[in-house]
Design a protein that fits this description.
heterotrimer; A alpha/beta; B alpha/beta; C mainly alpha; A: Rossmann fold; three-stranded antiparallel beta sheet; C: mainly alpha; ABC transporter involved in vitamin B12 uptake, BtuC; 14 helices
């Protein structure tokens, strides 16, 4: 990790699929240790952008550059619908998966490792629920568990796609505190959000997306009424 | 002049349809009358007999060829064409060819139908034989199987050589009716052939004399040797259901093993293309051996020892004798 | 008491074929049960049966070229099974078609091809049944084959366990962690094909798929975690084999169906009284909930 170099840099990136371009010509940088929200109307390409940064989607054009040594230390929290919740696994095991990068497919967790899992559960407010199978967790509890998993993942760059969409207020606040703590530890955090109040309150940087970058920088500036109006228009245009 | 495209189109269509229909009408024998009588036999054994009786005068085809399974046979269009063009059909009867009625319909056969087993005294399955039912009923969604159940007529009459003689005489009579010009020749050949069959019958009975009665027992997977057993005084232990499709019950298998041990059966016979794994298991567990493959309702390819009816009988006889002598 | 013991064990003591049948069936159960649990969890429950049909042309070709050779037929079936699985996987990854539909298409084509090949041989339809064996006819080679396959399967499953679990649960996570989920999935399908092919020749079609799926579906009603389900599935398979063979012995019914029906009976019992999601349990729980509701309303 080189000091001063951005964590993630977008160089004229186009993202999408064969028949539809979701993000056009995006350029900019996420500085190391920044806390950035990606916002925009529906269909703005926010999830697509996160997928691209996470490496799950290759750019149609342009380049997404991940800072030296950070590619291996990048964790993503996709929208929770993509998990098979009916699978019989305990909450403890789900969280423990975060240690995969250390432990791999075969080794078990040592004492310290197991304690780490318990700690994570405690921090997210799920202490004592380790034994419960994941399909008995509420939406909020599941999200807490996934955050705990992220904790164990110990990544330098953390990406989140709508982490609070199906979650109650109390959980949202607790998890936002966690995001803050990560930010304080110097990790780079990027989150797709739709609640602008939360963004204004917690996120110093914002990227306003509407199929293309509308503005990217300090939250106050980016979320001006004029920009928001422009973004809505751009997206409406894209949909017709 | 006004054009009537619709009318000319329908006229052409009508003409085309007429031409097509005409082409599909069954053709009368358009080929030049050949001097060979076209005979179709249902399976290889009958075909061989017909060849012995008719020789070069005939153009013989067998529907189920050598090493074919007449019980589970599925006719093809080629068979229908051959049958349609034939002047004489020679069949076994006794319910052997379950698939024949439908084929006859499809082929539009108009020739002479000879039932070779006419006059044979049929035996009923389950008569006098210790058929150990080792399986439930397998079901097929095509023609009913030749494997009958107790109470059905056993069609394998040719296993008794004296029935073979009856077959030969029926065939001769049929050929004489279809080709009266050469009736005498057919009868002569039939008589000569019958003599050979009777010689073989005598020789076989002689050989059997040398085997003590207690040893005159054989075990086979097929229910095809009933006539053999009945005619020549051999007790057949037929293990139904150890043939291809069905799986036996463990209890029945155990009883078979007990029977073999108790009766001191030395050898068992396989059917062609039957799953041998069960038979091998039995041999390993009882010490009995596999006596070889018997031919029950088909001949082997022409030129091989079992390629003729007489050859087939001699082949079976040799193996059975060896097995009984132990 | 002694009489019961005798009834339960004598057939196996007296007859070699009973002992072998039990050994072969148990070897199969120990491998097929765990595989079945994964199939159920991945919602691929019907794949076992579909794969069974898919391997037909390979087994047929093996028979047509080398006769009743266990190795030829196994190899043929294996190759075909792997090819079908790979092609289906490829199509589902490259096109919008999902894996189950893609697989359905391929296995049907494979089956048609197999039937055609078998019929080309002539009119002897019995050929097709020569290709599949029976549990009562196990010889040394067959027993060795199924035992070897079972051991390999268990070892492989132990090694792949965590990867397979995560691949089911959260494939995106696995991919992000560089966990080679696709390879594990392929390895799993390979194990499946291996067990099916080995199993068919020694135990027949019905039994292999049955002993793979029925105990697995029953196990989830008794235990929760994946590992426990696998162990229980193996045990239930073994129990069904034992019971089925005894019934076949005493009641004169064919062996394979007896084993499968025993497994089926265990399944129905599990559905009825199993503690995790069993019907009795659900009824009791709903009654309790209603009672509590009434209580809270009344007070």
């Amino acid at each position: 990790m080189v000091v001063g170099q951005p964590a993630i840099e977008l160089q004229r990136v186009w993202l999408g699929w064969r028949d539809r371009v979701a993000v056009r010509d995006a350029s900019g940088a996420f500085e190391q240790g920044s806390l950035t929200a990606i916002v925009g109307p529906n269909g703005a390409g926010k999830s697509t952008l996160i997928k691209g940064i996470a490496g799950r989607l290759n750019p149609l054009r342009g380049r997404i550059h991940v800072g030296a040594g950070l590619a291996r230390s990048l964790a993503c929290l996709p929208q929770s619908a993509e998990l098979d919740l009916a699978f019989p696994i305990s909450t403890f095991d789900l969280v423990a998966l975060g240690a995969w990068h250390r432990v791999g497919a075969w080794r078990g967790l040592d004492e310290a490792g197991l304690e780490g899992v318990e700690d994570a559960l405690r921090v997210v407010g799920l202490a004592g629920l380790g034994r419960r199978p994941v399909d008995t967790l509420s939406g909020g509890q599941l999200q807490r568990a996934l955050f705990a998993r992220l904790m164990l993942r110990d990544a330098r760059v953390i990406l989140l796609d709508e982490p609070f969409s199906a979650v109650d207020r109390a959980t949202t606040e607790d998890l936002l505190d966690l995001l803050h703590a990560w930010h304080a530890e110097g990790r780079t955090v990027i989150a797709v959000l739709h609640d602008l109040d939360i963004v204004r309150a917690y996120f110093p940087q914002t990227l306003l997306l509407a199929g293309q970058v509308v503005e990217w920088g300090a939250t106050e500036q980016v979320l001006s009424p004029a920009n928001l109006h422009l973004a809505r228009h751009l997206c409406a245009g894209a949909l017709t | 002049m006004r054009r009537r495209p619709a009318r000319s189109l329908s006229a052409w269509s009508a003409a085309a349809v007429l031409v097509l229909c005409g082409a599909m009408l069954p053709r009368a024998h358009a080929q030049a009358p050949s001097d060979r009588i076209r005979v179709v036999a249902t399976f290889s054994i009958l075909a061989d007999m017909v060849r012995e009786v008719g020789g070069d005068r005939l153009d013989i085809q067998a529907i189920v060829g050598p090493n074919g399974d007449a019980h589970a046979f599925e006719p093809t269009p080629r068979d229908a064409r051959a049958l349609g063009a034939a002047q004489v059909l020679v069949r076994n009867g006794l319910g052997f060819e379950g698939w024949l009625p439908r084929l006859l319909d499809a082929a539009g056969f108009k020739g002479l139908d000879v039932v070779a087993s006419d006059g044979v005294r049929p035996r009923v399955l389950g008569d006098e034989e210790q058929a150990l039912e080792a399986h439930g009923h397998e079901t097929h969604d095509h023609e009913p199987h030749g494997h009958g159940h107790a109470g059905d007529v056993d069609p394998h009459a040719w296993q008794d050589l004296s029935n073979g003689v009856i077959y030969v005489r029926n065939i001769a009579r049929g050929l004489a009716a279809a080709d009266p010009a050469h009736a005498d020749e057919y009868r002569r050949r039939a008589d000569a052939y019958a003599l050979r069959l009777q010689d073989e019958d005598r020789a076989w009975r002689n050989d059997l004399e040398a085997v003590p009665p207690a040893r005159r027992v054989m075990m086979t997977t097929h229910d095809a040797f009933g006539y053999l057993g009945q005619a020549y005084g051999i007790r057949i232990v037929s293990v139904l259901g150890l043939s291809s499709e069905a799986e036996p019950a463990a209890g029945a298998l155990a009883r078979i093993i007990d029977q073999i041990r108790d009766r001191g059966i030395r050898a068992m016979f396989l059917e062609k293309a039957v799953n041998p794994t069960l038979m091998r298991r039995i041999t390993q567990e009882t010490g009995a051996r596999i006596g070889g493959t018997l031919y029950s309702d088909t001949l082997d390819a022409p030129g091989t020892p079992a390629g003729t009816y007489l050859g087939m009988f001699r082949w079976n006889a040799r193996l059975i004798l060896e097995a009984m002598r132990g | 008491m002694n009489l019961w013991l005798e009834l339960l064990t004598q057939p196996f003591i007296d007859y070699g074929f009973m002992r072998r049948a039990l050994a072969g069936a148990w070897a199969l159960s120990f491998a097929a049960g765990p595989l079945g649990v994964f199939l159920v969890l991945r919602r691929l429950s019907l794949m076992g049966d579909a794969m069974a049909h898919a391997i037909l042309p390979g087994v047929a070709v093996g028979f047509l070229t080398a006769g009743l050779s266990l190795s030829a037929m196994t190899l043929g079936g294996l190759v075909t099974g792997v090819v079908v699985a790979l092609l289906a996987g490829l199509v589902s990854r490259l096109t919008p078609l999902r894996e189950d539909a893609s697989f359905a298409a391929f296995y049907l084509v494979s089956l048609g091809l197999g039937v055609l090949l078998v019929s080309l041989r002539g009119t002897n339809m019995d050929l097709i049944h020569v290709l599949f064996g029976t549990v009562l006819g196990l010889n040394d080679a067959a027993l060795l084959l199924v035992t070897a396959v079972s051991s390999v399967t268990l070892l492989a499953l132990a090694a792949l366990f965590r990867v397979l679990v995560i691949e089911c649960l959260d494939p995106l996570f696995l991919r992000a962690e560089g966990g080679a989920g696709a390879w594990a999935h392929m390895a799993f399908l390979l194990l499946l094909v291996l067990n099916l092919v080995a199993g068919f020749q020694v135990l027949g079609t019905l039994m292999v798929v049955g002993i793979m799926m029925l105990p697995a579906t029953a196990a989830r009603f008794w235990v929760r975690s994946v590992g426990s389900q696998m162990i229980l599935a193996a045990a239930l398979g073994a129990a069904s084999s034992y019971a089925g063979l005894l019934v076949s012995y005493y009641q004169d019914v064919p062996a394979s169906p007896a084993i499968i029906l025993a497994a089926g009976l265990l399944y129905f019992v599990s559905v009825a009284i199993g503690p995790h999601g069993g019907i009795l349990q659900l009824v009791r729980q709903s009654r309790q909930r209603r009672a509590r509701l009434l209580e809270s309303m009344g007070s």
